[in-house]
Design a protein that fits this description.
heterodimer, A: 259 residues, alpha/beta, Rossmann fold, 2 domains, 11 helices, B: 441 residues, mainly alpha, 19 helices, metal ion binding (chain A), metal-binding (chain A), 4 iron, 4 sulfur cluster binding (chain A), iron (chain A), Fe-S oxidoreductase (chain A)
Chain lengths: 259, 441
C-alpha cells in the first residue's frame, strides 16, 4: 500500500494538503488496522494529497489525561505539538474520535492550532463533492444497519449527522436504537476504561449496548471509533451473534462499496 | 386587635427575612470556598442559556409531559407570588385586599388567573406525588435518595398542595362574606372568583363568624407557610428554584469533550523540556500548587454552585452507563456528596470561625475511589442535566488528585501510563512498528 509520511513529502520539496492522524489503536490494534487501511485506500483512490507522521506520531495523551495523569498528557502534547508545528501542519483528519477531540479542543490551549476533522465528516464531504463514487447495488444495499454514536463525536463535539449521511449514501435500511444521538449509550471504553477491568457491577456496558443494537434486528452495526468497534464486537461475540451480525467502521463500509 | 395582628405579622416577617438572609450568606460563602474561575465571557451566549435553559426549561422538554407539569408548578410558583406582595402589604398595613380598589376590574382578572394556576399547581403536585410514591419512577426511587432526600421531595409537594388549598379556601370564605356584607369584607367587593367559587357550597352553611375565623386562619397559615418554605429552601433540593438561574448563566460554554487545562502542570512540563525557560530556583513560587481536587476548596466555585443547584432529579444517573450496569458510580450522588461536604465545611467554619481540619475530605470520606474509577467520561450526565450541572467535571478533578497527589491508580492504569511514556502508545508495542499497518494486511 502506498502511504507517504510528511517527511517523505518534505524530502521531495512538497507539502501535503492534509495530515492523516492514525492514532494508537489504528496503528497497533489488529482490528483497527483494517479501518486504517480502509481509510487510506479511500484517500488513495480519491487522490488526496495526504500524509502520515509514521514513526513520529505518538499518543495524544487522551487516556492519560482522562485517568487523571495530567503530567503525562502535557508531556505527550508538548512533543506532538513540537512535531506538528515543526512541519507546519494546518489540517488534520483522524479516524479516532478521542484523538479528534484532543487535537481539536485541547491542543489549542497548549499552542497547537489546527483545523481538525473526523473521517466521517471528510467522507461526507467527499461524497457530496462526487469524489467518492459508490457502486450501484453495493454490499450494503437494502441491508439493515444501525449506527452506534461515539460519545466523543456526538455529545462531546455535536457531530451526529455526518456519519448518518454517509451511511444513507450506501442505500441500506438505517434503523436507530432507542438510545441514539445525544441519548446514545456509551460503549464503555472512554475515560481510560479501555485499559482496565470494569469496576464491580451487574453487567458490562458493552454487553448492554450490543444487546440494544442486536434488538434492532440490524445485520450491520456501524461505528465511527476504533474503541467503540472493539467494544461492540466483543459484545456481539458474547451473544454468539458474530456470524450473522458484523461490526464495521464507516470507512470500511465505504471502501468496500467504492467504484 | 388589629394592631396586635400587624405587630405579630411584622415580627414574624422580620425573623423570617433575617434567618433567610443569614443562611443565604453562609451558602454564598460556601460556594466561594471554591477556586476562582472566570465565567463571564460571551454574554450573548449566557443570555441565551439563561432564557432557554432556566426560564424556558429547555432540557426538561426531553420528556414533554413532565416538562409541562413542572412548568405549571414553576410558573404558578412565580406568578402566584405576585399575590404574596399584596398579602405582605395587607399584613404590614393591616388592610384587606389593598390592590382591589386601585386595580379595579384588572384585579379580578389577576386573582382569577392566580386561582386557575393554583388549581393547576395542585393537580401537578398530586401527579408528582403519585409518580414518586405509587408509580415509583425508577430514578426517583433510587438508593441515592434513601432517607431524608426522599422525604424532602414529598414535604415540598405536600406543602405546595396545602398552600394552594389554603389560598383557595381563603378566597372562598372571603367572597362568601362579601356577599353577606359582613364587617369590612363588605367594603372590598370583588365578586366571586373562578375556582374558589366551587368551594363556596362547602362553606355556605357556616356562620359568618366561623367564616371569618376560617378566612383569617387560612390567611395566616398561608403566609406563615410561605415564610417557612422560604427558610426551608436553603436546606432542600428546592434551592434550585433560585440557583438554577445563576447556574445557567455561569454554565461552561466550551465543547463538552474539552477538559480544563492545568497551566501549572503545563508550565512544569515546559521547564522540564526547555530548562532554559525555567525561573531561577530562588524565584520559584514557594507554595506547591494543588494537582487536582481532594476537597471542596480545591474545586472551582462553579462546581460548588452546581452542587447547591442540583434538583436531585436523577436524570444524570438514569443515563449513566456505569450506573445502568450496576456500578457504584451515580453522578447525582457525586453532586449530593459535594453539597453535603460543602455544608459540613460551612458548619465547621460557623463553629470555629475558620475551617479547622476535621480529618475528612470529599474523596474517600464522601466519594470512594471505586465510584470515580467507573466513569467513562461519556458526558451523558452533563447532557441530561436540566440545570446545567457537570458531575463529570468534579469526577475528573478528583481523579487528578488520586493519580497525581495520592499516586493511587489501578495497576493496569499504571501499566498504561508507563507504556505511553516509554512506547508512546497505551499498549506495549515498539514505536518502530507504528507504521507497520501499511505493509501488513
Ligand atoms: S460521564 Fe461518567 S458519571 Fe457522567 S454519565 Fe458518563 S460515566 Fe456516568
Ligand atoms: S446533576 Fe442535574 S440531572 Fe443530576 S440529579 Fe442533579 S439536577 Fe438532576
Amino acid at each position: 500500500m502506498d502511504v507517504r509520511t510528511v517527511a517523505d513529502y518534505m524530502n521531495s520539496g512538497e507539502t501535503p494538503d492534509i495530515l492523516f492522524w492514525v492514532g494508537c489503536a489504528g496503528s497497533f490494534d489488529q482490528r483497527s488496522q483494517k479501518i486504517t487501511r480502509a481509510f487510506a485506500t479511500i484517500l488513495n483512490k480519491v487522490g488526496l494529497k495526504y500524509a502520515i507522521l509514521g514513526k513520529e506520531e505518538a499518543c495524544t495523551g487522551d487516556p492519560a489525561r482522562r485517568a487523571g495523569n495530567e503530567f503525562l498528557f502535557q508531556m505527550m502534547a508538548y512533543n506532538n505539538i513540537q512535531v506538528l508545528n515543526g512541519y507546519g501542519i494546518k489540517k488534520i483528519v483522524t479516524t479516532c474520535p478521542h484523538c479528534f477531540n484532543t487535537l481539536k479542543n485541547e491542543y489549542p490551549a497548549l499552542g497547537g492550532n489546527y483545523e481538525v476533522i473526523h473521517h466521517t465528516t471528510l467522507l461526507q464531504e467527499l461524497i457530496n463533492e462526487g469524489k467518492i463514487r459508490l457502486k450501484e447495488g453495493g454490499a450494503f444495499k437494502g441491508k439493515r444497519i444501525t449506527f452506534h454514536d461515539s460519545c466523543y463525536l456526538g455529545r462531546a463535539n455535536d457531530i451526529y449527522e455526518a456519519p448518518r449521511k454517509v451511511l444513507e449514501a450506501l442505500d441500506g435500511e438505517l434503523v436507530e436504537m432507542k438510545r441514539c444521538r445525544s441519548n446514545g449509550l456509551c460503549c464503555g471504553a472512554g475515560g481510560a476504561q479501555m485499559f482496565k477491568e470494569d469496576e464491580p457491577g451487574k453487567t458490562r456496558i458493552n454487553t448492554d449496548r450490543a444487546n440494544e443494537a442486536l434488538a434492532t434486528g440490524a445485520k450491520v452495526i456501524a461505528s465511527s471509533c476504533p474503541f467503540c468497534n472493539t467494544m461492540m464486537t466483543d459484545g456481539v461475540k458474547l451473544d454468539e451473534k458474530e456470524e450473522e451480525v458484523k461490526v464495521y467502521d464507516i470507512a470500511e463500509m465505504i471502501a468496500e462499496s467504492m467504484n | 386587635m388589629h394592631i396586635i395582628q400587624e405587630a405579630a405579622f411584622i415580627v414574624v416577617l422580620a425573623v423570617a427575612i433575617i434567618l433567610f438572609s443569614k443562611k443565604s450568606r453562609q451558602i454564598y460563602r460556601n460556594i466561594m470556598l471554591g477556586r476562582p474561575e472566570p465565567l463571564n465571557d460571551q454574554p450573548e451566549k449566557r443570555w441565551r442559556n439563561l432564557l432557554l435553559l432556566a426560564f424556558g426549561q429547555k432540557k426538561m422538554f426531553r420528556n414533554p409531559l413532565v416538562a409541562v407539569l413542572h412548568f405549571v408548578v414553576y410558573a404558578g410558583f412565580i406568578i402566584i407570588n405576585a399575590e404574596v406582595l399584596e398579602i405582605l402589604l395587607d399584613g404590614i398595613l393591616g388592610k384587606h385586599r389593598l390592590f382591589a380598589e386601585p386595580l379595579g376590574g384588572f384585579y379580578n382578572v389577576l386573582i382569577n388567573s392566580f386561582e386557575i394556576l393554583a388549581a393547576g399547581v395542585l393537580l401537578a403536585c398530586a401527579i408528582f406525588l403519585v409518580r414518586r410514591n405509587l408509580v415509583k419512577v425508577k430514578r426517583l426511587n433510587h438508593s441515592d435518595l434513601t432517607g431524608w432526600p426522599r422525604s424532602d421531595a414529598n414535604y415540598i409537594l405536600i406543602t405546595e398542595i396545602v398552600l394552594m388549598t389554603l389560598f383557595l379556601t381563603m378566597n372562598a370564605a372571603d367572597t362568601l362574606l362579601q356577599q353577606r356584607g359582613y364587617s369590612h369584607y363588605g367594603e372590598a367587593v370583588t365578586g366571586n372568583f373562578r375556582v374558589s367559587a366551587l368551594f363556596q357550597p362547602m362553606l355556605a352553611g357556616l356562620s359568618s363568624g366561623t367564616l371569618e375565623g376560617i378566612e383569617r386562619t387560612c390567611w395566616w397559615l398561608h403566609i406563615l407557610g410561605i415564610l417557612a418554605f422560604l427558610n426551608y429552601l436553603p436546606y432542600s433540593k428546592h434551592l434550585h428554584i433560585v440557583l438554577a438561574f445563576p447556574n445557567a448563566w455561569f454554565a461552561r460554554l466550551k465543547p463538552m469533550g474539552e477538559m480544563h487545562n492545568m497551566p501549572e502542570v503545563q508550565k512544569e512540563v515546559l521547564y522540564m523540556m526547555q530548562p532554559e525557560l525555567a525561573p531561577p530556583a530562588d524565584q520559584a513560587p514557594a507554595e506547591m500548587p494543588r494537582f487536582g481536587a481532594r476537597d471542596v476548596m480545591d474545586l472551582s466555585w462553579k462546581n460548588v454552585l452546581d452542587a447547591y443547584s442540583c434538583t436531585e432529579c436523577g436524570r444524570c444517573t438514569a443515563a449513566c452507563p456505569a450506573n445502568i450496569t450496576g456500578k457504584k458510580l451515580s453522578p447525582r450522588k457525586i453532586m449530593m456528596d459535594t453539597r453535603d461536604r460543602a455544608e459540613a465545611i460551612g458548619e465547621n467554619i460557623n463553629a470555629n470561625g475558620e475551617y479547622k481540619d476535621d480529618g475528612k475530605s470529599l474523596v474517600h470520606d464522601y466519594i470512594t475511589e471505586e465510584e470515580l474509577r467507573a466513569c467513562t467520561t461519556c458526558n451523558a450526565c452533563v447532557q441530561e442535566c436540566p440545570v446545567s450541572i457537570s458531575p463529570l467535571d468534579i469526577i475528573l478533578q478528583l481523579r487528578r488528585h488520586l493519580v497525581m497527589e495520592a499516586s493511587s491508580a489501578p495497576a493496569e492504569w499504571n501499566g498504561m501510563f508507563s507504556n505511553i511514556e516509554n512506547n508512546f502508545a497505551p499498549w506495549k508495542f515498539s514505536p518502530d512498528d507504528r507504521d507497520r499497518w501499511i505493509s501488513e494486511n
